[in-house]
């Protein structure tokens, strides 16, 4: 037995294949975890950007920006985002009808109502 020390055995083909399969599984799981982390980070960044944009629009409305300009800017900002608003622009839902799922929706709703309250009564 040239090349082997006494008492040592080599690995059989099935053992090598099993070890390779386990290693491949570990590598694939790690790649998926990294991919998920990257997607989660990107989503958080997009959400934060949208939140800052919504707060900017709301602050302009509160600061007395011209109603027509504020309304047009707000509509443009909201229509450029996904998903679309949960109700049509012509509707005036009650607060009970509005579902606030996360902070961006809450800020959108605050801005919507701030603009609606500033519109002249018909």
Topology:
Blueprint: H1 13-62, H2 67-79, H3 103-118
Helix pairs in contact: 1-2, 1-3, 2-3
- Total strands: the figure is 0
The structural class is mainly alpha
Residue share in β-strands: under 5%
Distance between the termini: 100 Å
Query: Percent range for helical residues?
Result: 55-70%
H-E string: HHH
Average pLDDT level: 67
Structural account:
This protein has 122 residues and is an all-alpha fold. The protein has one domain. It has helices spanning 13-62, 67-79, 103-118. The longest helix has 50 residues, at 13-62. The N and C termini lie far apart (100 Å).
Short recap of the structure:
With 122 residues, this protein is mainly alpha-helical. It has helices spanning 13-62, 67-79, 103-118.
Features:
122 residues, 3 helices
